[in-house]
Amino acid sequence: MTRGSTLPAHRLSHLSGRLAIPAQTRTSPAPLLDGFNSASADAAHRTLLACLRSLRWARRVADHRPYPTLEALLAASDEAAYDLTPGDLAEALAAEDLPALPEDAYEAAHMALGAAHAAYEAKFGHTFVICLDGVPQDESLDHILEAIRSRLANDPEDERVVAAEELRRLAKQRLTDSLRGAGL
Q1: Mean of the pLDDT values across residues 77-85?
Q2: Within its chain, how far is the Cα of 124 from the centroid?
Q3: Residue 11: inside a domain
Q4: Which of 1, 120, 125, 184 has minimal Cβ neighbours within 10 Å of its Cβ?
Q5: Is the pLDDT score of 50 beyond 90?
Q6: Has residue 53 been placed in a domain?
Q7: pLDDT tens column, 114-141
Q8: Cα 11 to Cα 50: distance, rounded to the nearest angstrom
């Protein structure tokens, strides 16, 4: 069912006989969204859970389909992520893995990252999460180590806020990559 404007048309005196009707642009969803918007609820949930392992977040984003644009989908993803409860956050963090190191990282880097992560997990009780979107691959190791060491100074509540923000950013990145990768 299409809905038109609820505003009445008005005559403008200087445009004798012409009607001023609010412009309505009809744009179809971006091609990459077609598959996501028309997928079954189960398929949409699977796609979303691959991006962020929160059942509540996935249901909320999936239940508001169809999305007219990728930007609208990403805004809905953000909104749902901002509303994660502490339990939702714990669920999502429990499913995260330590960021992967570049293939050519030397053994000492693996040891340094392992030690930093062990200290982080001992303090906060969950895996360290970070979104590396926009970080050049050759700088990712330094970025991860710097961030994990810096965030070890946070108190648990401050770190919960930072981890939630990183999960939100990861979900957006993964969702964008997933839709583009599937050719949706």
Answers
A1: 95
A2: 23
A3: no
A4: 1
A5: yes
A6: no
A7: 899 999 999 999 999 999 999 998 888 8
A8: 53
> What is the H or E stretch that residue 19 is in?
strand 19-20
Summarize pLDDT for 169-180 with one digit per residue, the tens. Answer: 999 999 999 888
66 cis-preceded (ω within 30 degrees of 0)? yes
Radius of gyration of the chain (CA): 22
Find out whether 105 and 141 touch, Cβ atoms under 8 Å: yes
The token pair that represents 108 in the structure block: 């000492």
pLDDT band at 182 (very low <50, low <70, confident <90, very high): low
Distance CA 35, CA 184 (A): 5
Which of these, 121, 174, 110, lies nearest to 145 by C-alpha position? 110
In tens, the pLDDT along 147-167 reads: 999 999 999 999 999 999 999
Task: Look at the chain and report how many structural domains it folds into.
Answer: 1
Report if residue 159 sits inside a domain: yes
CA-to-CA distance for 66 and 124, rounded, in angstroms?
Answer: 37
Q: Are 61 and 41 in contact (CB under 8 A)?
A: no
Q: Is residue 34 assigned to a domain?
A: no
Cβ contact 141:113 at 8 Å: yes
Residue type, 144: I
The whole-model pTM stands at: 0.77
Domain that holds residue 133: 97-164
